[in-house]
Write a structure and sequence with these properties.
Elements (H helix, E strand, L loop, with lengths): L7 H14 L12 H8 L3 H13 L3 E4 L3 E4 L4 E4 L6 H6 L5 E12 L2 H6 L7 E11 L2 E11 H4 L11 H9 L5 E10 L2 H7 L6 E10 L5 E10 L3 E4 L5
Parallel strand pairs: 3-10
Antiparallel strand pairs: 1-2, 4-5, 5-6, 6-9, 7-8, 8-9
Bound molecules: 2-acetamido-2-deoxy-6-O-phosphono-alpha-D-glucopyranose.
2-acetamido-2-deoxy-6-O-phosphono-alpha-D-glucopyranose (16G) binds next to helix 4, strand 4, strand 6, helix 7 and strand 8.
């Protein structure tokens, strides 16, 4: 494609994308100020800003207020075909997984939760909300529900590591299947504060329901993932 036919802001986007792809611009590198880019590429600052805004929206660049525009780290890509834990996912990428417990309580199942767990309304569940981090950076806020009858004492255990390891090692529970849905959402004030993103930015809302080999529901998890840090992929067979 001949770039000179493209609108100016798209031309600049293509140049910057190439620089990122061929490694001349690396994650963490700071871009020159808008004024310099506008001189260098002979376009107005508004056009430069338009190009940069689009690359920020695509997750290739990020802005730090008062500091400038930087090349973003590539998103963490998770294979949707595997029933893996956050800990395994991060470790397989050489990243340090983390979990900070924000809240844990015993709740009574509302109608929706009762249906998911095949419980009668009002039965008890353990609700655990944890902030998940990768290399100490907040990635997701996960709210997990577990049946109280089966895991009554789990809230007393150390939940700052892998929940799946805990289930396996302390309760001999192995998850065999899960159903997961992913949809777009907006960060609520609570999510934005904990995930260190502005309120209302697009996020990925994920629900996972996992069962053991006897098809007993073990966990129902509602998560909010940062869309600028995470993406999911699936391999399709023809
Ligand atoms: C993943 C799961 C979550 C599960 C957690 C266990 C998604 C969207 N969610 O984050 O359902 O509870 O792993 O991870 O993938 P852990 O064993 O590291 O605590």
């Amino acid at each position: 494609m001949n770039r000179s036919n493209l609108p100016l802001y798209l031309q600049l986007q293509e140049v910057l994308k190439d620089e990122i792809q061929n490694g001349h611009l690396k994650p963490g590198d700071q871009l020159p100020p808008e004024r310099e880019l506008s001189d260098q590429f002979q376009m107005s600052r508004m056009t430069v800003r338009q190009a940069l805004n689009q690359l920020v929206a695509e997750g290739l660049l990020h802005r730090i207020q008062g500091k400038g525009t930087f090349v973003a780290r590539p998103k963490i890509a998770q294979n949707l075909g595997l029933l893996s834990s956050f800990t395994e996912d991060m470790m397989s990428r050489g990243m340090k997984p983390g979990a900070r417990v924000i809240e844990k309580e015993i709740i009574h199942a509302d109608h929706k939760l009762a249906e998911i767990f095949s419980l009668t309304d009002d039965m008890r569940l353990i609700k655990i909300r944890r902030l998940r981090t990768a290399d100490d950076e907040p990635i997701a806020l996960e709210t997990t529900h577990l049946p109280y009858e089966r895991f009554a004492d789990i809230a007393k255990k150390d939940l700052s590591g892998s929940l799946y390891d805990l289930l396996r090692n302390e309760y001999q529970v192995v998850l065999s299947k899960a159903r997961q849905s992913i949809e777009a959402g907006e960060a609520t004030p609570l999510e934005a504060g904990l995930l260190k993103i502005p309120e209302k930015v697009p996020v990925l809302i994920i629900e996972r329901m996992s069962v053991d080999p006897q098809m007993q529901v073990i966990e129902y998890v509602n998560s909010c993932y940062r869309a600028d840090k995470y993406k999911f992929y699936v391999e399709l067979q023809g």
